[in-house]
Please model this.
Amino acid sequence: MREGHKGTGPGAITPDGCAVELYSRLSVGSEPDIIEAAVPAGAHILELGSGVGRMTHPLLERGFTVTAVDESAEMLERVRGARTVRGTIEGLDLGEKFDVVMLASFLVNTGDVKARRGMLRTCAAHVADGGCVLIQREGADYHSNVPRERVDPSGYTVRIVSAEPVGDGVNSVRAEYEFPDAAWTQTFLSRPLTQEQFEAALAEAGLEATEYLTEDGVWVKAVPVA
Model:
C-alpha cells in the first residue's frame, strides 16, 4: 500500500486505497456529459487513471475511442470495449498523441508533488497539436466543508469524514461509502491547490488553462503552451 493510503472493505484494494468492487458500484454522474460537451465528436481519448471504467464505458457509448490507463490489473479487468494499458501515469510513454488526454478523479491534487509533476508531464507529452487536456480538480471547499455526506439516488451514502493536516500542505482525507449490503473506507493524501497554484503547476508542465468548464471550477480544459 502506498504510504499514507489505505482502504478497507470487501474485495481487492489498490495501492492508493481504492476498492475495486466499490468503484464498480459507484454511479457516473454528470462527468461524461461535461467531457462530451468540451471535445470534438468521436475524439480519441487517453484516460489516465481509468479504474474500472466508470467513465470509460459512458464515453464509449457516446462514440469516443478510449485508451484506458491504470496501474491496477484488477481495475482494468473490469474495463470493456477500450484498449487498456497497465502502468503508472507518471511513468507512461506510449509514443502516441491523442485528441484528448483526461486526468480525472482529483489525481492532480495528489499529496506527492513529484507524482503530480510526472502526471502533468505525461498529459503534455501525449496531447496532439490542436488537442486538449481535461483535468478534474478538487473544489474550493473540498477540505473545509467536512464532515459532509451525500446520498446517491441509487441508494448508497458517501461521507467525507475528515481532512486532517499531516504537514507540508498535505491533508489526510478519510472517505466512507455505505451500501445496503457492504461498506468501504478510503484514506488518502491530498494537497489543496488554489487556482493560482493549480495554474502554476500546469505552467510548469508546459500547459495553460483555457476554460473552466463547470461553475465550481472543478473541470478544466488546458492546452500546451504555444
